[in-house]
Amino acid sequence: MATHLDDPRIVEFDVRTDEMLVNMGPQHPSTHGVLRVVLRTDGEVVSEVEPHIGYLHRCAEKIGENLTPRQWIPYTDRMDYLAGMNMNLGWSLVVEKLLNYQLPEKARHLRVIIAEMGRIASHLVGMGAYGLDLGTFSPFLYAFREREKILDLFEEACGARLTYSYLTPGGATADLPRGWLQKCEAFLAQFEPVIAEYHALLTTNAIFVQRTAGIGVLSAEKAIDYGCSGPVLRGSGVDHDLRRDGEARYTEMYDGYAFEIIVEKNGSYPKDHDYPAVPREAVLGDCWHRFYVRMLEVVQSIDLVRTAIDRYSQATGDWGTPIKLTQKLPKGEAYLETEAPRGQMGFYLVSDGGSIPWRARARSSSFCNLSVTSELCRGCLIADVPAIIGSLDIVMGEIDR
Amino acid sequence: MSGPTLLQSLQKRFGDRITGASLEALDPWIEVAPEGLVEVCQYLKHDPNLRFDMLNCISGVDYCEPDPKKAAKAPFQPHMEVVYHLSSTVKKHTLVLKVMLPRWQDDVPGNLPEVPSVAGVWRTADWHEREVYDLSGVNFVGHPDLRRILCPEDWVGYPLRKDYEMPLEYHGIRGR
């Protein structure tokens, strides 16, 4: 049969391009570490995304089977290296759960101060790096300027700037140094107004909104089904935060603290502070909302730290004595999840009665958050892939362990 | 629903596919036979009173004493446990399921023990099962894409097994 060029089917056939496999990473700057993503694209449109992980696998769980719980603390630092304090906390709590160790009141407040400061530092990196992913450099510098001050405070408390090993089963390795609380309060007072700058630079920036609003929409059902947690889950409108809904051993740390979970309820976020309005283009569950939840959590953490400082200075007793390095663990097993900055970080400890765990397992929040990428990126443009992966705020150290 | 009532209702519904439980444990757990796992999980997820909509973690635990001198005195029979930690974002409760497997299917070393995949119930299971397969060596039957996830594709052995031995060499890299 003779065909004519003006047959629309033929013309369409002619312009259709071949599918192409594009390799992103593992050294791509916007993959937050060593993540390799293989994209199947048709022109600019991505039809399939497959993350390849494991480049940072350091056998942390196997090492945990050969060390006592206190010796494993430094390895938890190196999982989520942007929130080492929160990793220490998760492992400490699960060891204490197995030992049925009652933490002194002062230690609980100390942990709230440290954990929430860690959350602020982590979200600052998340925010700054997200700006980098989208092609703007200055928010990163603004974020790191403030994060440095938190790291200085941490350094004063424990001597390290990134891998702290500060919170430990039984409490903390040392009390906060004299004058630390005042410095912390001074930092918070200085930091709180700065957040408006971040909102001006990113949250309400027209280009930023265009790049993130309505991109990578994750429905609440999908988020739960994929096991997403933290800001990714709450950005999809699921009212779930382990600081309120977790196990008693963890939530008792936050007993009596007034805080509202940052989640969109009935079309609006909590209004306890002056937050910028949600732009019209934004859809619940998109990249913009995930970013926004993080920004609001920073403000929430400031409030929590302030309350914790008050309570800590009023509390009597000590900051908790660390357990012995070779403390024998009772036979049994314990699992506990905490609300780390990136989501629910779980630790599973199985003991055969010796001082070295039979099995130490880390359930990583970023691991589940990343697994949703292929779902989110289907049908998006190549330029949106870094925007989507960046909005999940992953840390490869935690994913690969 | 409290632990004992949940266990009773599961036993009534699934009979001998619920093979054991420990409600006194720190995290009370229920043991399920591998052949009933998917059905039990479907029920736990969709029952309006339970609503375990989130699968938090799947872990493989290898019970094996590699040292032959200590093996006779080991307080357990060699076996493999797959542990499922579930929670509900609606009801805010948690549950632990366990599946006991032989270390090797039919006791033939190299034959991975088999358990049905729950990737069709919770999508989280997809990557978690790949990880357990990769590190502990459990074959999840019915998994959509069961291959190694953290270790390289050509890795030999299952590192989190207690009798695993580090390779001496990997692509020219000295192991020990």
What does this structure look like?
The complex is a heterodimer of chains A (401) and B (176). By secondary structure, chain A is mainly alpha-helical. Chain A has one domain (60-382): Cytochrome-c3 Hydrogenase, chain B (Orthogonal Bundle), CATH 1.10.645.10. Chain A contains 17 helices and eight strands. Chain A has helices at 8-15, 60-64, 69-77, 84-99, 105-133, 138-158, 180-203, 206-212, 220-225, 231-235, 242-245, 248-251, 287-314, 365-371, 373-377, 384-391, 396-400, and strands spanning 20-24, 36-42, 45-52, 167-168, 171-172, 332-340, 343-351, 359-363. In chain A, the strands form three sheets. A three-stranded antiparallel sheet of chain A has the order 1-2-3. In chain A, strands 6-7-8 form a three-stranded antiparallel sheet. In chain A, a hairpin with a 2-residue loop joins strand 4 (167-168) and strand 5. In chain A, helix 5 (105-133) runs antiparallel to helix 16 and helix 6 (138-158) packs antiparallel against helix 7 (180-203). The longest helix of chain A has 29 residues, at 105-133. The model of chain A has no long low-confidence stretch (mean pLDDT 87). With 176 residues, chain B is α/β, with parallel strands linked by helices. Chain B has a single domain (3-174), classed as NADH:ubiquinone oxidoreductase Nqo5 subunit (Beta Polymerase, domain 2), CATH 3.30.460. Chain B is 22% helix and 26% strand. Chain B is built from four helices and nine strands; from the N terminus they run H-E-E-H-E-H-E-E-E-H-E-E-E. Chain B has helices spanning 3-14, 37-46, 68-71, 124-136, and strands at 18-22, 29-32, 54-63, 79-87, 94-101, 114-116, 139-141, 169-170, 173-174. In chain B, the strands form three sheets. A five-stranded mixed sheet of chain B has the order 1-2-5-4-3. In chain B, strand 1 (18-22) and strand 2 form a beta hairpin. The longest helix of chain B has 13 residues, at 124-136. The termini of chain B are far apart. The mean pLDDT of chain B is 87. Classes of the chains: A mainly alpha (401), B alpha/beta (176). The interface between A and B is large, with 38 and 33 residues.
